[in-house]
């Protein structure tokens, strides 16, 4: 038997309803925040991620699905969305668009060759946003508020917002030197990866899972002590916006994020729900002021976040949230006899064309079996068509909620049901 590749999953029909519900909600929220959807290719030139995400990141060093196409080009399945969006921003000269900042969102599959575990997949679905063109801390607050709203609007409560600042280029440079000075005496005690990181990107050491307990970690220099005045001011402004908007947050100076492009604001949203699992990060994002230039565009500030719907669904489960899903059928048409069977096909067709969710039997089931099927599909109405009804040009409509049963003319039944459905949908 051939199974799905490791780290991927099928979303079966009974689960897809939940996905639709979430996706619709996210499109809706994006509208309320005035962000427009962008769709970029699933694969990009490998160089984009090497330059965009950063050569020293885990993503680029170990996690990319990279392949050569028949023309000998190196391509990579996108591991994240920001680099692609920025590429598109530069390619389409969006800095010249009349509406600034350019506010974009995206949703789709992303790929990382990671060691699969709960909440960590090789193919996952990210929803993310990017706001390009503004260096106002108010937009950082908007992006964080947007991320929180995605979770809150679905009923999640056990959330913790953690923020930090990585400062501007100068602050980062000074901090980098301090980290090198601090960790160099312990070099031999650190893991192989961290020994490399010490030279290439010492900030990454703070993120290491293996060296987490090393005594040198606790005393590591905090970025917040290395922020220059401008960076400090930026961080303070962001905090005052969050406070104004009543968005609670914790500051964690050790949160550095796993991608290289960040400056100033970084943030993560964690789930505090019991039973969520070992990985508690739901969502991550931050500001990336140098990225547009790195990818060949004019100097442009940007900020965004992304999360996976898979982890969002884990959080819903952990908090025991059942979303109201619309998986019922409006009508199921039950028929008896050959003539009635043909007429039933026409009735179902007319119902559907009137926008009513309808189905009938295709398995030659007896009446009882057809009623059972209607029950399993949670049909609101069962329409019964036997030889007698057919001869009279009528059909019986049974309301499954009230048990009420009525005969209608075959000609008018669709019109009648459409009226009821429209009323029901409007009120429900
Ligand atoms: P990231 O922290 O690498 O950031 O990923 C963001 C989110 O994607 C994670 O918090 C998690 O919800 C989800 N995610 C990542 N990897 C996996 C995985 N293997 N399985 C399931 N879910 C996963 C970024 O991707 C940045 N592009 C975010 C950003 C946008 N920063 C600025 N703009």
Explain this structure.
Residues 1-324 form the Aminoacyl-transfer RNA synthetases class-II family profile domain. The structure is a single chain. The chain has 428 residues and is an alpha+beta fold. It has two domains: 13-168 and 228-318, BirA Bifunctional Protein, domain 2 (2-Layer Sandwich), CATH 3.30.930; 331-427, Anticodon-binding domain (Rossmann fold). Helix content is 38%, strand content 21%. It has 15 helices and 16 strands. The protein has an eight-stranded mixed sheet, sandwiched between helices. Strands 13-12-14-15-16 form a five-stranded mixed sheet, sandwiched between helices. A three-stranded antiparallel sheet has the order 2-4-3. A hairpin with a 5-residue loop joins strand 3 (65-68) and strand 4 (74-77). Helix 5 (137-152) packs across helix 9. The chain is elongated. 37% of the residues are buried. Histidyl-adenosine monophosphate (HAM) binds next to strand 6, strand 10, strand 11 and helix 11.
Based on DSSP secondary structure assignment, what is the total number of beta strands? 16
Supply the helix-strand structural class.
alpha+beta
Query: Can you tell me the CATH topology of the largest domain?
Result: BirA Bifunctional Protein, domain 2
Shape: elongated
* CATH classification, class level of the largest domain: Alpha Beta
- Heteromolecules bound: histidyl-adenosine monophosphate
Strand content: 15-25%
Q: How many domains make up the 3D coordinates?
A: 2
- Distance separating the two termini: 44 Å
Fraction of helical residues: 25-40%
Based on the structure given, which CATH architecture of the largest domain is correct? Answer: 2-Layer Sandwich
Q: What average pLDDT do the residues reach? A: 95
Number of helices: 15
Strand count, sense and closure of the main sheet? 8 strands, mixed
| Superfamily (CATH H level) name of the largest domain | Bira Bifunctional Protein, Domain 2
The strand order across the widest sheet is 1-5-6-11-10-9-7-8
Radius of gyration, taken over Cα atoms and rounded to an integer in Å:
28 Å
Low-confidence stretches: none
């Amino acid at each position: 038997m051939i199974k799905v590749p490791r780290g991927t999953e099928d979303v079966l029909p009974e689960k897809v309803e939940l996905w639709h519900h979430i996706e619709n909600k996210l499109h809706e929220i994006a509208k309320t925040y005035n962000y427009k959807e962008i769709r970029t290719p699933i694969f990009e030139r490998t160089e984009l991620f090497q330059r965009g995400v950063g050569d020293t990141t885990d993503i680029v060093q170990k996690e990319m699905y990279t392949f050569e196409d028949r023309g000998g080009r190196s391509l990579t399945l996108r591991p994240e969305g920001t680099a692609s969006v920025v590429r598109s921003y530069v390619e389409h000269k969006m800095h010249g668009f009349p509406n600034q900042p350019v506010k974009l969102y995206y949703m789709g599959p992303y790929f990382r060759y990671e060691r699969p575990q709960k909440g960590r997949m090789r193919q996952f679905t990210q929803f993310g946003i990017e706001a390009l063109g503004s260096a106002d801390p108010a937009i950082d607050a908007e992006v964080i508020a947007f991320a929180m709203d995605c979770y809150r609007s679905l009923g999640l409560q056990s959330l913790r917002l953690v923020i930090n600042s990585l400062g501007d280029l100068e602050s980062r440079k000074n901090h980098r030197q301090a980290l090198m000075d601090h960790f160099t005496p312990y070099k031999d005690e650190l893991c192989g990866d961290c020994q490399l990181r010490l030279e290439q990107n010492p900030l990454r050491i703070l993120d290491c899972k293996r060296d987490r307990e090393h005594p040198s970690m606790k005393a590591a220099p905090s970025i917040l002590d290395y922020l220059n005045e401008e960076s400090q001011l930026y961080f303070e402004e962001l905090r005052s916006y969050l406070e104004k908007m009543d968005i609670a947050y914790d500051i964690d100076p050790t949160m550095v994020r796993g991608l290289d492009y960040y400056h100033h604001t970084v943030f993560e949203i964690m789930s505090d729900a019991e039973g969520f699992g070992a990985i508690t990060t739901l969502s991550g994002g931050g500001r990336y002021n140098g990225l547009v230039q790195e990818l060949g565009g004019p100097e442009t500030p940007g900020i965004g976040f992304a999360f996976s719907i898979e982890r969002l669904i884990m959080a819903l489960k952990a908090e025991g949230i059942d979303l109201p899903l619309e998986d019922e059928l409006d009508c199921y048409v039950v028929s008896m006899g050959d003539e009635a069977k043909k007429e039933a096909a026409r009735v179902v067709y007319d119902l559907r064309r009137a926008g009513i969710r309808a189905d009938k039997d295709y398995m030659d089931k007896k009446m009882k079996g057809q009623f059972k099927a209607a029950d399993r599909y949670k049909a609101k109405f069962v329409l019964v068509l036997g030889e007698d009804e057919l001869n009279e040009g009528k059909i019986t409509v049974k309301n499954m909620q009230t048990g009420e049963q009525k005969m209608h003319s075959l000609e008018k039944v669709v019109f009648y049901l459409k009226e009821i459905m429209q009323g029901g949908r409007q009120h429900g």
